[in-house]
Structures
1.
Amino acid sequence: MGRVFKIAARNLLRYRRRTLLTTMLITIGVVAMLLFVSASGSFKAMMVGQITDSMLGHLQIHKKGYVSSIDSLPLTMNMKGDVARKIEDTLDKRDNVEAWSPRIKLGAMFSNYAETTSIRINGVDPEREVATCPDLRDRIIAGETEPLVERGKILIPELIAKGLKVEPGAAVVLVATNKDGSVNGINFVVQGVLEGISGPGGRDGYMHIDDARELLRMEDKEISEIVVRLKDPKKLEQALADFEATLSSLTNQEGKPILEIHGWEKLSPFAAIAKMIDLMTLFIKIMLVSIVLISVMNVMIMAVYERIREIGTIAAMGTQPGSILQLFIAEGLLLGLLGAAIGTLLSVLIIQVLQKAELTFSFGRQTGLVLYPVVQPADVILASVMVVVVAVLASLQPAWKASRMDPIDALRHV
Amino acid sequence: MRCADGSKATRFWNLKVTDRLTHGRRMMSLVSAQSVNKVYRNGEVEVAAVKSADFEIEPGSFVSFVGPSGSGKSTLLNLIGCLDRPTSGDLRVVDTDVAALDRKTAAAFRAQHIGFIFQDFNLIPVLTAAENVEYPLLMVQNWPVARRRKRVGEMLEAVDIMAQADKYPDQLSGGQKQRVAVARALATRAKLILADEPTANLDHTTAYRIIDLMKRMRDEFGSTFIFSTHDPKIMEAAEMIFTLEDGKVGPAERSESHG
Ligand SMILES: Nc1ncnc2c1ncn2[C@@H]1O[C@H](COP(=O)(O)OP(=O)(O)OP(=O)(O)O)[C@@H](O)[C@H]1O
Ligand SMILES: [Mg+2]
């Protein structure tokens, strides 16, 4: 095999400029793909991480119909305390669950005694919430962060803090209407201000779950949702299917399941953007394949054409068609390997520069997000394998043609 | 005399067996043609390039096919070289029916028994002189490295091109290239060396030297040389001459200079 590669390599060196150009083309393709994949991949991972780790968790359990009317935060669609307990028991028994957190979601009027606005609030158990959404605390841009939220205090969204000029420590009053229609107001102290992020719930305030119950004068320990954090987010689909199966045993009198389960993808519009990114990645891959296919095939067709007499000579000497095939495929393979290697090297370098540069970008209302592209070994392997395989495929036809040549015709060729 | 290996099933290893048989029985002819015809068909047009050729060539001969352009020299040499098949007639080379060889077995047969020398030298440009000589041993016959080195050295020595061993073809003169080509053709100790106008691209002096070298190689290694030429002076160097005219092969003539 080594001898075949030696001859192939020498032939590539013989047409140095052409080899260089083809290698450059492949290199550009590889760099384009790896840069795009690593940049979009890290953007996606960051956004998904932010959404799941500071807001939505990996999956959520609600009473059936809650999510479709989530905009109005309907208290009538909360899960009863006994149902909640059953769910919590189930979750505790699952070893794919890292943490879970119950929430009461409510809408209220927020007043700083001068101005009033509406606010959406999550009533949470601070410890469970932090375990389930570990990055939530990072979003507190002003005020105390430990514990997440104390009794009698609230975390308010940045928008309200700015709009009503409320700072941590300020006394405010929250007024809410409970399920039965009676109104209740409680005084709170602003503990901190939460940075807003894109997506549903990205501009909600937080208070202690017991304060929420008090505000709403709840007797039963009912909740609006349970947020679940999985040990392995990649196994979301499995977990969803598993919970679906288990929790569908909780039914109403008509035997219909009373709960609904959603993965974060169903709850956040960012999932659509993530899908777009995947689609674009696919296009880039198709482009890479086309570049390699066309450039290698082009070079190999030329190589075979230019070397017809050489092919005739070695065929006359008794070189088996299979060996001639190998000689040309080896050439395509080497081109692919060269392009993949240089492309990977260059990509890693560029990515390192990008990491150092700490380029920032904005997404929606969020500004100053740092683009931190990371090359995954899997992507490098994928790109390299793609390039090499396609390079070999592209040289197959020309190589086959060379191996089938009639020695007399080939020798007569001028 | 017919040989079982003339069948389609002829293979590399079978050929080796045939080889030994041949030696054992002391075959009379290395090449034997009986009413060999070659007709080229280009659509409606038919060209009879070789017409009813009959000849025998003994092992160790130094033979020339001579004739004007278009007389069928190349066609005949291609047939003998198992690069082409006769349209009709019986052509046996090293005891093998040429017509019975298919693409692969013909390649194996050539690899084993036939060496080629070309008018345009046809060295592989990316290989040095030594590597060109090594090529058939390495890429065709798959010899182990030590044996290969030894043989390449011997051959370069024999054609007196040792000093140019590491030069690439484009650094060699025409005569030097043809020496390398002779060494390459003989590297496997092929029984039969075919050279279609080996001197056409060389000046007279060099041409004679190459023919002389070929003859010395025949003396040294016992291979049979068949070359074609349209140059009457070069022709004289052959020991046996077949004259071709319009596809017809004349009777064998002993060259005067060889009595
Ligand atoms: N592939 C082919 N198709 C059709 N006709 C052919 C083909 N090859 C050779 N011929 C014809 O066969 C005849 C013999 O050609 P050949 O090449 O054998 O002659 P030659 O003696 O080698 O000539 P030269 O000295 O010019 O090389 C010529 O008339 C030629 O035109
Ligand atoms: Mg000719």
2.
Amino acid sequence: MSIEPIQVETDVLVIGSGAAGMYAAIEAARAGCRVLLIDRSLIGRGGATVMAQMTVAVALGAEGPDHWSHHLHDTLTAGRGLCNEPLSRLLCEQGPACIQEMDAWGVGWARKDGKITSAFAPGHDRPRCVYVDFLNTGPAVSKTLRTVVHKTPGITRKGDLCVVDLLKVDGEVAGATCWHAESGAPVVISAKATIVATGGLTRLYRRNSASTNMGGDGYALALRAGAPLIDMEFVQFFPIGHLAPRLIGMDPIMWDPFRYKLGGRLLNKDMEPFTDRYGVPESGKYVITRDVGTYAIIKEVEADRGSPHGGAYLSFQHVPAEKLREAFGPVIDRLAENGIDLTQTAVEVAPIAHYHMGGVAADVAMRTEVPGLLVAGEAVGGANGANRLSGNAITEAFVFGCEAGRTAAARAKAMTAAPAAGHAARAAIDLIRSAPPKDMPNSAEMLASLQATMSDDVGPLRTGEKLKRALGAIGELTTALGDRPFGDAGAFDMQRLDWFDLRNMLTVARGVVEAATLRTESRGAHQREDFPEMRPEWRVNQVIRLGDKGLDITQAAASPLEVAAQ
Amino acid sequence: MTETATLKIWRGQSKADGRWETHAVPFERGQSVLDGLRWIRVNTDPSLAIRFSCINANACKECMMELDGETVYACTARLEPREMAVAPLQNKILVRDLVTEIAPPAERFAAPSSPPPQAGAGERKQEK
Ligand SMILES: Cc1cc2nc3c(=O)[nH]c(=O)nc-3n(C[C@H](O)[C@H](O)[C@H](O)COP(=O)(O)OP(=O)(O)OC[C@H]3O[C@@H](n4cnc5c(N)ncnc54)[C@H](O)[C@@H]3O)c2cc1C
Ligand code: FES
């Protein structure tokens, strides 16, 4: 059986339809280009954007004085010396324009007295975070951008197209080869400019706030196309992700707003407060920072004082029912449907993987080292350094998407035609159509095993020994994966999809582990128990390239920026 | 005591030619039907096709299927310790197993090589 590859041609190809991809598509189309916006899932639904619940950081200065330079100052402080400062500046400086544009498009930022209102979030020096209805930010952002994408002439949208490899013609990226999930057929897209907006990698971990599309595809695609990655060791964990009892219909990071409003108490298996052991007494108020919270819970579990499922208890039992209802109304009913009565039971929480600071290296025009290849959103590394400030991720998606769209359009308009794919797509087409190997291990089980390794050995607290063990496990899985895709090459073949996912995830996981192994210090989201100090000589970014024998890692001084304080 | 949920799942690549398969899944209170289907993929049969991405948040709206004849989101439908019949959406074109074409037509890539919709779509062979 040989399914003929389908050939398509466009000016600008945008891979991924989160906030970054949709903004990029709109911007490139406004500049007069034909845009093809594709996603491995449904358009505008498969990524982190639609799941984001809380806030978007931006120095609007609508309610009180603020300026992007203050936002930048806070962003650089949180990034612990590793930010690519020109990128951070771009995020902070251009944020307000994008937020205003989203407002004009009708996203519905919450207002007070007619002005867009901002919430205060940890790490910001003043209230700076806009939101929609508190728990509806992501869905509103996605819906608004989907509507604008529909209305903008020149944009074609196609779902169920999973990019397997970027097309490289004469040293430049010239589109992508995709696996069409619905039919199993290969699809070759030729483009004058290609934007990777595929989001982050948190699916690498067993407990995460991710969707199944966040396996770090874009990082692996860029690496294989010759573009370097930076800061891959910096994975952000969220300390109080929901752990037990099983809670459905709600995202696991939902307890954060509860803690902001109601405090709550973090307790160990004996129902005793324990955070004082780690320097923060339990006061019933939400003062513990993400890194300390994560550390305290993990240490308590290691000392055999964790909750039954391996986390801590979060208790609101001391909060009267009326107060709970007043603060969270319908959410209390959804909890009741899950058999959870907060006045009677404490829930179990534990750190979960949430966001990736690292990513593809890019300049302020979103160009990578490889001509024709641009990046946007969480796929870009560097703007947030060693630790991201809350609310910066969605701003980053808007601003970087907008810039990438503009740069892609300029490149496309200067070219007469997209380079012909010729034989460049051959290897990817052969993979997509390949007959399966004789022995196929269970692909879903392999995925679960990789997630277990990453969670157990490459979590928030690392040691050289654990990282070494992880590298061993990744090596074994890579051998088991082999070079021939599993499954039958038919329509919606999940084993084949798992194989493509594992191919990317194992490469990206190796990048995280090798970079973490080399960084013999603790900084931001990367904590080494065997090297607990932050060291000045490590104020460098680690750059990863794909070499002949695996990954090559080099160190480069972080890129500073002189900004005059306003 | 470990309880069991029995998932009776419709499998096949064309509506005219499918079969029901029964899988026993360890039951834990509070789990979703999607949890059960994912358990099957990891533990017994990775070839089972399901469409989903957000797992918990009920945000992607991809996991629609029929549970005992009713249209549900598999990620919010509760798993129960009894036999439950899970089938693809009747009114959509079948792709494979529990996966149907759910995207708006303009967002669907027309692959010339994909099989045309089966005559008599909507009928499903049921083994009693
Ligand atoms: C639960 C949750 C809550 C969050 N809350 C907040 C918050 O309150 N504030 C904040 O600032 N940030 C928050 N974040 C982070 C923020 O949502 C993300 O960083 C941001 O939305 C990323 O946008 P993006 O467009 O870069 O990627 P995404 O929105 O993740 O989109 C990437 C898209 O690429 C597609 N894709 C991936 N691989 C491929 C491939 N190979 N081929 C084709 N398509 C592909 C995916 O299907 C997906 O649709 C949250 C994240 C999560 C998970
Ligand atoms: S898995 Fe996303 S809505 Fe069900």
